[in-house]
Amino acid sequence: MTAAVVTGLGITAPNGLGTEEFWKATLAGESGLGPVTRFDAAQYPSRIAGEVPGYVAEDHIPSRLMPQTDHMTRLALTAADWALKDAGIDTEELPEYGIGVVTAASGGAVEFGQRELQNLWSKGKEYVSAYQSFAWFYAVNTGQISIRHKLRGPSGVLLTEQAGGIDAIGHARRHIRKGFPAVIAGGVDAAICPWGWVPQIASGLMSTVDDPTRAYLPFAAEASGYVPGEGGAILLVEEAGSAGARSAAHVYGEIAGYAATLDPAPGTGRPPGLRRAAENALADAGITPGDVDVVFADASGVPDLDRAEAQALTELFGPAGVPVTAPKTMTGRLLAGGAALDAATALLALRDGVIPPTAHVTAPAPEHTIDLVTEAREADLRTALVLARGHGGFNAALVVRRTA
Amino acid sequence: MTTSTATVTLADLTRMLRESAGEEEGIDLDGDVIDTPFIDLGYDSLALLQVIGEIQRDYGISIPDDAVVDAETPGALLALINSGRTPAA
After folding, report:
1. Using CA atoms, how far apart are residues A310 and A266, in angstroms rounded to an integer?
2. E strands, A242-370, in order
3. A126 at the B interface (CB within 8 A)?
4. B2 to chain A, minimum CA–CA distance in Å?
5. Angle at Cα B9 formed by Cα B4 and Cα B11, nearest 5°?
6. Which residues of A touch B42 (CB under 8 A)?
7. What pLDDT, in 10s, does the model give residues A51-71?
8. pLDDT in tens, A338-393
9. Which fold has domain B10-83?
């Protein structure tokens, strides 16, 4: 069957703007978590976030797009620009209907939406931006990337909360298999505003610890929930033959396996679906657990969810049977951007033969029998498994494999 | 802001276009654009809706929604604004 490979990466993350800055910081264990600055969070129980540093929108976004884009969409457009540039693809030379765009989303552009709703309530309808008609919309990143680069291939948006970044990449592979040469896929999210904050608080899963080095400690005995972040990754997923024909500058790896499952309804007593997603993704890639060199964990930070994931990993790989890491400890959980960033990080790990660390966690709680990587570890990496769970029962697993 | 009796000039309009909808790369709004269709200046109907909203707020006037489709050029929009002044609702 046609292979789908990744030939371009674009990353906007709380611990680095741009792929190489992010990767350098990630290997060094440098965290981008800190007190919320995008809004006054003093009155909220959770006050720590991962914010993308030093992003000046005007440096990246044309003036015509400024009034009609949220911070989230600007980061997404920037990441898409970088992914295309990294891939060395000139969209002007591509067939107009050949390239699609598939991104993940959570709540849409909530900061823009909140501002315009506040204008409506406090000043009146005359004060609402005409661009509110689409700028808030959860499909807006896909739409704006498609318009900017004149990409009219099969496009869409997937909403499976934190699992979405993987689902978007899996969906991109479907389009490749149908004969399209390339798809821009991934997710970038940014919901660090009151409207984006409150529903997450209501989930009861967010950490309320104020120390950025102690707030998000997945698999640790002191785990207390998660810290949200903004940003994500956009990947250029390309048919292997197309990448070969144009002698693509990079082939980061192959999208070798993908699967998604839904958790059973609460109270049924049936096990959660994460293990099944992982098993199905391995089967899809035609490999066994012994072939996996590293796992990028979902790493919820919520004790019960950490327990469920550690148990699934132990059942699949045996106790401490595979290195497990969670570099998202340095970015926070990026909603629709998180799993896409993990997939990009896994590809960088394959490229350089090094497993990035789980920051701030010195050791997993004794009950979790996993080999948690807490310092960058060199290893001959051929195959990585990336796991993600989205609130509401979504599970997704992705297998990425080095091609050379 | 400007009083509702002031005439809206092309310079006012281009300033507000820049502010509310941005400026297309390669387009010089300070040039001779009075009869250039908005679409050629890089502005779609939403951009016009946005700038008309700003004009209505700043000048305290009301402009019919149809202006977005009826006024195809800056000149036509200015004529519509400056001739058919009605007090804001």
Report:
1. 20
2. 253-262, 294-296, 323-325, 354-355
3. yes
4. 17
5. 125
6. 64
7. 999 999 999 999 999 999 999
8. 999 999 999 999 999 999 999 999 999 999 999 999 999 999 999 999 999 999 99
9. 1.10.1200
**Token pair for A372:** 């948690």
Per the CB < 8 Å rule, is B56 touching A126?
A: yes
The C-alpha atoms of residue A89 and residue A196 are separated, in whole angstroms, by 35
**pLDDT of amino acid A138:** 93
Does any CB of chain A come closer than 8 Å to the CB of residue B50? yes
Question: Which residues, at least 6 apart from A92, have a Cβ–Cβ distance to it below 8 Å?
Answer: A150
Tell me the C-alpha distance between A100 and A167, whole Å: 15
For tokens 């996996």, name the residue: A292
Is B64 an interface residue toward A (CB < 8 Å)? no
Chain B residues with beta carbon closer than 8 angstroms to that of A62: 22, 24-25
**Inter-chain touch A63–B53, beta carbons under 8 Å:** no
| Chain B residues within 8 A of A68 when measuring between CB atoms | 21, 46
> CA-nearest residue of chain B to A125?
B53
Domains of chain A: 4-245 (3.40.47.10), 257-401 (3.40.47.10)
- Give the CA-trace dihedral at A155, A160, A165, A171, to 10 degrees: -40
- On whether the CB atoms of residues A324 and A384 are closer than 8 A, the answer is no
Q: Report residue A377 as tokens.
A: 């570890």
Q: Give the per-residue pLDDT at B85.
A: 58
